[in-house]
Design goal:
It contains two helices and twelve strands.
Length: 169
């Protein structure tokens, strides 16, 4: 009979224990504010022209940022524009490079990034000479950023829209 009481007690305690473990294992999250700025050097470019994005990550925490993943991609509206042709042609300052991989990763920051420090990098895009152009043709981008700090115990991520140039004829 004693065994039955122990089995019933275990059945009652197991769900509570599992819920407690799951809740305590949730990763720490930072506020939704991304410490990232992105600026295009031109509001307008022509066919065969180029523009450069400067992206700056600043560490707002009291511990180093030790891991960063960042990608830059065309916005949905940009990807849907018929005949618009452009590509990244140069990359990097103050990072250990850029990469084109299946996930669109572009920045590989030198880490750790000390508290209060900032790091910038540039990506230059060239518009094809036979690209679509006109007052409604824009190259808008977005950046997905994920980073970890506090020894990997905390992370933050989000998307930043980047207004790029209009492609003039």
């Amino acid at each position: 009979m004693r065994r039955t009481h122990l089995s019933r007690a275990a059945l009652a305690v197991c769900p509570a224990l599992a819920a407690g473990l799951l809740l305590s294992a949730a990763p720490a999250r930072a506020d939704g504010q991304l410490p990232l700025t992105a600026v295009s050097d031109r509001q307008t470019t022509g066919r065969g022209g180029e523009f450069t994005l400067t992206l700056t990550l600043t560490n707002p925490y009291d511990t180093p940022i030790q891991f960063v993943y960042q990608s830059v991609q065309p916005s949905y509206r940009t990807s849907q524009q018929q005949g618009l042709k452009f590509s990244a042609t140069a990359c990097g300052t103050q990072t250990n490079g850029c990469s084109d991989n299946v996930h669109g990763g572009i920045a590989r920051y030198d880490v750790p990034l000390a508290p209060g420090a900032g790091s910038s990098f540039t990506v230059t895009y060239t518009v094809a000479p036979d690209s679509a152009c006109g007052p409604d043709v824009r190259i808008d981008l977005y950046s997905y950023l994920y980073y970890e700090y506090k020894g990997g115990l905390a992370s933050n991520s989000g998307i930043l829209g980047i207004a790029g140039p209009q492609v003039a004829c």
